[in-house]
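Re-run with default settings, no changes from the original entry. Doing this only to confirm the output is reproducible before filing.
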Amino acid sequence: MAGDPRRERELVQRAIAGDADAFGALYLMHLDAIYRYALLRVRNSTEAEDLTEQVFLKAWQAIPGYRQYGKDFIHWLYTIAHNVVVDYHRRRDSVHISLSDAVIEEEHETSVLDALVQAEDVSALSAAIAQLPEEQQQVIILRFVEGLNYNEVARIMGKSEGACRIIQYRALLALNKLLVGEQV
């Protein structure tokens, strides 16, 4: 997320006016978050890169008509990213997610056994998340991977905070059942 909201607002206003350099700065500011979101939704780094570029291309094309309406720029980008990913899945006719690609190596050394256990845990979690309905996947990713609060998730998804809490609750129940081997 952006560090300085005033600077981001200024860059957005300049980008709306057609300033490509300002849009480039916004691109750099939010590239990692949008890529991470796409990667977790499509499970393939090459596809995620392509989808991320589609998101920013669509954003560049739509920026002249962008209006904040109480929404942060990153929320607008997440909405575009969600739509791009949905289109991708419609074309591919499958829904996958992988947290293993998103795991960042810690700076301190871990034993090979610890790394294998962690990879196995991430793989199990990834497989369980992939079995959730798309709406539940999105809430889990936005809340726990991207670290957004309910208000931000609700704005991105176009739902109330209460609805997002219910979706998250149901998703966590389903994940628990899947991870302990019960049928959902």
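The longest helix spans residues 20-42. The two ends are 35 Å apart (CA to CA).
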